[in-house]
Structure formats: structure tokens, C-alpha cells
Amino acid sequence: MARLLYQGHGSLRLTTNAGTVVYIDPFMGEGYDVPANLVLVTHQHFDHTATDKMPHASGCVVWQNMDAHPASGTYVTQTFGDVTVEATEAYNAMHDKNECVGYLVRVDGLLLYFAGDTSTTSQMGRMAALHIDYAFLPGDGIYNMDVSEAARCAKVIGARHNVPIHLKPVEPYGEKQAQKFAKLAPNSLLIRAGEEVEL
Description:
CATH superfamily: Ribonuclease Z/Hydroxyacylglutathione hydrolase-like
Number of strands: 12
């Protein structure tokens, strides 16, 4: 069964049933001791780009926003072994639509949505049809949407589980914001910094 470690802020580590290790937006927290097979970066702000924080396994791929969202404007889908990654829209006043992405990650029969740094996007309105299992949504209210808007996005996306992240820059977690999200969002799941869950 796939496992996910929330390292804190916007940083996560996903381990597939086959043992593939994927880091998403590495920057903060513990758990960088396991060699990476794939590193995903949603944009180039300093708190998402610590791609050398962990050891790299042989053949490790670092796939960044410029790989996933080329100048043509086409959002790329790429398969890396047992993991398929599709880039999605991500944008707000602090994050340029032409430079930032989120990711839909298919692994072990699950579909995970890592929204990246964003507010509401037009693409979210079409996501309910995808039957997403886990949506990871930012909610700091400074660089991204706040938790009230994130909860509204959760309702639109319709994921089986909605997880708030990137809640209090630049700190691992924001308990107050997480609790507010839990009251407002359907199917909320709170994973605190340093916690690992089976998906």
C-alpha cells in the first residue's frame, strides 16, 4: 500500500507499493534520508526547490515546472515507472500561471492531486469527474488562497479526502488554520507535519 509522509509546509514524500520514492516540493521537515527516484517541483520559489536535500537513487528524475509546463502552454503527462504524473494549472496573484503547476499523480490505483501554490483555478471545476482520492490544498491566505477558499475548492473538486497543507509560511504546520479547514471542507483529513499515513 502506498504511504505518504507530510514533511511540513508544502513538502511531501510519497512511497509506492513497489518502493518508488517520490518527493514533492522538498524544502522543510524530516524524512529526507530515503533516496529519491523522482522529485517533483511545482514552481521555483525557494520553499519548494530543495532538490538535493535527499540522496538520489540511480536514475532519479527531477521533474520541475518548466518540464511539465513548457512555453507552448501544454500541460505535460509523463510516466515514471509505476507513477504517472500530469501537470495541472496553478496560479494566483503571487504565482504566474505560465510558471507554476500542480500535479495529478496516479499510483497504485489511486489518484492524488497536489495543487501546488495556487488559489481557485478554472481546471478545478472539471476535476470532480476524475474521482480524485486525495487532494492536497494550500491555505495560508498570504501567498495562496485562505482555508475558506480552499474548502470551497474541496467542494468543487470532490475528492475522497481533502488535506490542507502550506498553512503558515514558513512553518511546518498551522493547527488553527487546519482546524478551520476541517470545519468547512467536506471529507477533510488532517495530516500533521511529521505524520505518515497509508493511502
